[in-house]
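Appendix B. Chain record.
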Amino acid sequence: MAKRKTLEDVFVHLLSDIYSAEKQLTRALPKLARASTSPELEQAFTTHLEETQGQIERIDQVVEATGLRLKRMKCAAMEGLIEEGQEVIDEIDKGPVLDVALIAAAQKVEHYEIASYGTLIAVGKQLGFKLPALQPLLDTFEEEKRTDEKLSALAKADVNPTAAAG
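Structure tokens predicted for this chain:
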């Protein structure tokens, strides 16, 4: 792997990394949806799959707007988070307790994405990229925060109380 020597190199690496992360997530979300017993949670995962596909398109827009080229790489962090989610599916019987664990796994993913997009926006601004180039990243950043909030609300209102009731 080439050394990152400039801020632009770091930006390209971060953008390539989150691109890989989103691609991996499109393969994982259907598994999370199938493992859910809560219809609302299943719908949340299905909706986020559609959003994730749009987020990949937004990264393509940023690449086009900036004239940068992504590097072929695999996001190790997302690979680990997805592996953790699969372990949850394998180790917990289908039911309300699994739903709680699925939300926890999904929120770890959301927090990773929120951090990644926040950093990309900050570095992009430092590089002098203007809003048209960075707007897709800002849109995704906000979308990821809303998804995290939806998962929290679903956990508090439905999934956690159902699991606690046994």
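Further analysis of this model is presented in Appendix C.
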